[in-house]
Design brief:
It comes from Laticauda laticaudata (Blue-ringed sea krait). By secondary structure, this protein is of the alpha+beta class. 42% of the residues lie in helices and 22% in strands.
Length: 85
């Protein structure tokens, strides 16, 4: 595990409700390693012990904060059946 800085699992309500495995977050020491993994995941499906691994790119903190600011509005629109939730 030469290029991995830290790895940890996260419990999410979505995963628990839908009986999915926990998310695993990985932080790499070098950006080149992260780029290689994202490119290979885009080209072909990655598997570990015959199970498919879904690789998602990290969402920047600024974008997460912006989504959080508008979360009240999203909940209201779902409640009014304007959008699907």
């Amino acid at each position: 595990m030469g290029g991995i800085d830290e790895v940890f699992r996260i419990f999410t309500r979505y995963a628990m409700r839908n009986k999915l495995p926990r998310e695993v977050h990985v932080r790499f020491m070098k950006k080149t390693i992260k780029t290689q993994i994202l490119q290979s995941a885009r080209d072909k499906t990655l598997k570990y012990k015959d199970k498919e691994i879904m690789v998602l790119k990290q969402v920047p903190r600024r974008m997460r904060e912006m989504k959080r600011e508008y979360q009240f509005l999203t909940k209201k629109l779902i409640k009014l059946s304007i959008i699907d939730g």
